[in-house]
Structure formats: C-alpha cells, structure tokens
Give the backbone structure.
Amino acid sequence: MEYKDILIISLLLLILISINSKKVKKLRLIGKRSIIITIHFISRFFPKQQNLVVFGGENGQGFRGNTKYLFLEMSKYPKLKCVWITSNQKVVKKLESYGYLTYKKHSLKGIFYQLRAKLVIHSHSINDDFSKSFLGGAISYNTWHGVGLKKVWGANKNTFTYKVLNDKSWLKRFFGKFVVKTNQARKNYIVSTSDHVSSYYPHTFLVPKGNILQLGQVRNDVFFNESEEDTQIPDWIKTNKIILYMPTHRNFGKLEMDINIVFDFQKLNNFCEQTGYTFLVKRHMYSHGQLPTIYDHIIDISEEDYDPQLLLKYTDILLTDYSSCYTDYLLLDRPVLFFSYDLNQYLQKSNQMYFNYFDVTPGPKSQTFEELLIELEKAVYEPELYSEERKRVLNIFYSKDNQVPVLHKQVNYIYSNILKLK
C-alpha cells in the first residue's frame, strides 16, 4: 500500500470518527454506567461490619458541616469504628494527625471500608461524597447541607434524575432507574428540619415518608455553644460590627455577573465608614470579578477557610440572595437582607424553588444597589424591623424542637434506631 493510500484511508477514518463521535460517546457512557450498576449490585452481597460507620462530606473535599460533628462525637463511642472517606489528601493528613481513621475514596483501604460499612453518613449525594459503586448494600444517612429554597435532585427539572424518571420513553425510564439507584444505598434516610421541609423531601430524595427524620441540622449547634472552634474566627471579626455578603451561584457560574457591576464599592465603603461597620464578602466558588483591595471597610474573605456557620455566628447583618444560609441565620434573630437584582433570570435559567420567594424571605428585597444602601441603613439603626417575619419563616423551616442544639439527639437516634446498638 502506497503512502497516498494510507493518507486517504486515514482521512476517511477521521471523517467517520467525527461523524460518529456522538454515538461513540454515548456507547462509552452506556458502558461506564453499566459497569457502575454492576459493581453497585455486587456490593450488596459484600459482608457488612455491624459497627462500621463511614463518613464523608463537602463533595469529598472538606471536613466540616453536619457530618464533621457527627463523626467527632460518634468516634468517642468505643463500640463504633468510624472512618472518614475523602477525595482530598489534605483532609487525610489533617485527620491522621489527630489520630482518626481516614482514607481517600479510591485507595484500597478506602474501597474496603466502603464495601464493609453498615452505615454511611454524608452531607451531599453518595456520588459526591463517596465512590457510590461500593455502597449498594449499606444504609445511607443523608444529613444534607442546608435548608433552602432551591429544588434539587428528583425535584429539579434540570437534573439527570428528574429527566430520566420523567422521560416519555418507558425504555429510558426503565434503564434510567438503575442509574438513579446507584446514587442510593440499600436503605436510605434523609434528615429534615420541619413538617414543611419534610413535605417535599420524598420526591426530592426519592425516599418513603417513614425514612424522613426531623432531627435538625447539627452544624447549627455552634450558634448555641462556645468551643475551641470559635478561635478559628479572628478577633478583628469578633470585635467589629459585621455585614456579611454570602451569595449563591448562578447555574454554576454560567450566569454570574462581575461583582464590580453589582456593587458600587466606593459608596459602600463610605457607608461603612459612617456607620462603623465592616463589609465582608464570602463569594461563591463560581463567582466572577476581582474585588478591589483599596477600601478600608470592605474585605474579601472568599479565599479564607473560615467555617460558614461560625462566620454567621459573628455576623450582625446578613446580606444574601437565594442562598440557604439565611434559613440557618434566622436562628440568631438578626437582620437579613436580600439582594435579588437578577431574580427573574435566576428563576428562568438557573434554578427552581419550592416556595414563592417573597413568602419566605423575611427582609427587604432590593433590586438595585441604591435600594440596597437604603435598606442597609434601616437594618443598622432599626434591627428589630422584620423581627416577627423572621420568626414566622424560621418556624416554616425549623420546628421548635430543632431550634436548639441537636447533636446528641441525632447521635442517639443513629445509635439506637439505625445501628440498633444498646
């Protein structure tokens, strides 16, 4: 065969590959999912260690939130073997230095403990916090990571789960259910905070009503207790009057506006200077724009590793948009403001909500920066405004018995009712 013939054949192959690239990708995806489904099914038959509890959280990247506190408390129980699974080597080193068992999720020991775990406790989906293929036979206890407005997983029309379960084709629905099942364990529990929240959890997390546990959010215990953790927040935050801006993302950053367009930082700095406040910005990881560093009263702490709940604890006024952080902040009964400058776009292109936005946001909703400055001034000098509204909305998201520390209540329930240990 001559060189020209080889060249022609090569070009033809490239053309064929480019034409069928979508089909090739689909076949690869089908193959990958088939392998995951098979391993997930086989993992059900792997013998479980009755006292072995595996923990994970923060999409496998961090050590904080609800699962952190459950891990630290349950590790004190001599009958339990507690293991933290992560994707982050820094987390492994940190926990190992304190003497805890921790492994990366794809390491041999990490896989072994996931296969052997009787119970897995996580803050996101099994897919995010662990290697889901190995957890088919476990019991899942999902603490979730907030109580908010935004629809997720089975309730969100933009997710794979919703699309495949509501597909017009019965064949796609049939096979799609197997894929969805790999994001669940043999038995699944989800932690809720109130009757209202529990009402939309069955179709969100695809669990029966009996497996919804109204046990609160452990991470909010920091609001009521003092501990060594409080030292993580520097004194200059604790001693200053703080306005904290903590926004959510817009379609994973695809709809984000430059923060310098959203705010007039010169006017904001003047406002803070006049009122004696410091304006902290804790941006979402998907946000755009570099915050200016020339202002004395505006500080970007987005790169700092401060626990968000501890930040809320030392915040005097919270400014947010559609983030669930405000529902936790209501436990402190302090002013919260909503900067909803892109509400229509957000609802149309980013996310759907369980509630009418205006019914469950107990504070002023500003559409422009000028409106925001006016409302900030009111919050500074009249913090009692919207107090009754805050209480009303708090009771929607948190039942009375979950507006207090809940750590020991949760641990006792897990120990006695799920692990069934005496």
User: Anything to note?
Assistant: The chain has two domains: 40-221+405-418, 226-398. The mean pLDDT is 89. Residues 40-221+405-418 form a domain with the Rossmann fold fold (CATH 3.40.50.11820).
